């Protein structure tokens, strides 16, 4: 028996159209109001995330191998294999661009004075797995109920370690300017029950523009953020965790 508020419940095809941002306004409105269909949409999005994570693991080299490729530290045949993959894979090209940019523009917070790039701790580059329509293959569940105002939610996952990072942007109602936003997030690191001591940063072209501590349960908030495109960086003792490219405020 369906618990849909207006049976029959939405079909899988209708829910996928909602997740892709292709549904009609009536479908989006129904998902916003119906907990049963919204839960079904969330289940489909989770299944899609699992499938795409497995696909990444199956087809793409892990981050440490890409780092070795960037440093030309692989054997000649392995270097050639990764080069062929990178030539055809925009995801890995983007990861290499972020890695190269990070290494070429040292930040004193991330790199102590005198430390060489290779002496730094590992950089964990997390993959974008869902975001507002147009930023990934699937729109975030709930995109249809946020309305037309500024805002959005981005979900990131590191395939090998299962480090998960969510970023949410919403209007900052307490800021002096009506174009300012709050960027909040949640970090989940397997094996790290206490995330206190980490710092969340937003980076623009010139480096870090905002910083906030991460709470013990992985939460952080940065207020008064001006419109623009930012990378998120979590700084900690095991190396920085970075998003693979900018999100928009």
Describe the structure.
It is a single chain. By secondary structure, the protein is an alpha+beta fold. It folds into three domains: 1-59; 60-104, no CATH class; 121-249, Immunoglobulin-like (Sandwich), CATH 2.60.40. It is 31% helix and 24% strand. The chain contains six helices and eleven strands. Strands 1, 6, 7, 9, 10 and 11 form a six-stranded mixed sheet that branches. The protein has a five-stranded antiparallel sheet with strand order 2-3-4-5-8, with helices on one face. Strand 9 and strand 10 (241-242) form a beta hairpin. Helix 2 (25-33) crosses helix 3 (35-59), helix 4 crosses helix 6 (90-104) and helix 5 (76-88) crosses helix 6.
Low-confidence stretches: 106-122, 133-150
Percent strand: 15-25%
User: Could you say which overall geometry the principal axes of the C-alpha atoms support?
Assistant: globular
CATH topology call of the largest domain: Immunoglobulin-like
Question: Which structural class matches the secondary elements?
Answer: alpha+beta
First-to-last CA distance: 42 Å
Question: Mean of the pLDDT scores?
Answer: 75
Query: What's the helix-strand series?
Result: HHHHHHEEEEEEEEEEE
Tally of discrete structural domains: 3
Q: Number of DSSP helices?
A: 6
Number of strands: 11
CATH level 1 class label of the largest domain: Mainly Beta
Query: Major β-sheet, in short?
Result: 6 strands, mixed
Short characterization:
By secondary structure, the protein is an alpha+beta fold. The chain contains 6 helices and 11 strands.
Task: Write the SSE topology.
Blueprint (H helix, E strand, L loop, with lengths): L11 H8 L5 H9 L1 H25 L3 H8 L5 H13 L1 H15 L19 E2 L1 E4 L21 E6 L6 E8 L9 E8 L10 E6 L2 E7 L5 E7 L3 E7 L5 E2 L4 E2 L1
Parallel strand pairs: 1-10
Antiparallel strand pairs: 2-3, 3-4, 4-5, 5-8, 6-7, 6-9, 9-10, 9-11
């Amino acid at each position: 028996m369906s618990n849909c508020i207006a049976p029959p419940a939405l079909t899988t095809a209708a829910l996928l159209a909602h997740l892709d941002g292709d549904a009609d306004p009536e479908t989006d409105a129904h998902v916003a109001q119906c907990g049963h269909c919204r839960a079904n949409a969330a289940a489909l999005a989770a299944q899609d995330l699992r499938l795409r994570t497995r696909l990444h693991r199956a087809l793409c080299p892990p981050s440490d191998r890409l780092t070795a490729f960037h440093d030309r530290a692989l054997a000649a045949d392995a270097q050639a294999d990764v080069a062929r993959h990178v030539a055809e894979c925009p995801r890995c090209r983007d990861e290499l661009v972020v890695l190269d940019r990070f290494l070429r523009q040292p930040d004193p917070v991330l790199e102590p004075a005198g430390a060489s790039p290779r002496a730094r701790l590992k950089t964990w580059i997390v993959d974008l797995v869902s975001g507002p329509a147009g930023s990934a293959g699937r729109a975030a569940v709930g995109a249809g109920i946020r309305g037309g105002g500024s805002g959005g939610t981005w979900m990131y996952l590191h395939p090998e370690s299962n480090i998960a990072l969510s970023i949410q942007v919403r209007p900052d109602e307490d800021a002096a300017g009506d174009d300012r936003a709050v960027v909040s997030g949640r970090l989940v690191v397997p094996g790290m029950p206490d995330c206190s001591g980490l710092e969340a940063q937003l980076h623009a072209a010139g480096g870090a523009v905002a910083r906030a501590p991460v709470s013990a349960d992985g939460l952080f908030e940065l207020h008064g953020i001006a419109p623009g495109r930012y990378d998120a960086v979590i700084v900690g003792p095991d190396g920085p965790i970075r998003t693979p490219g900018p999100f928009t405020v």
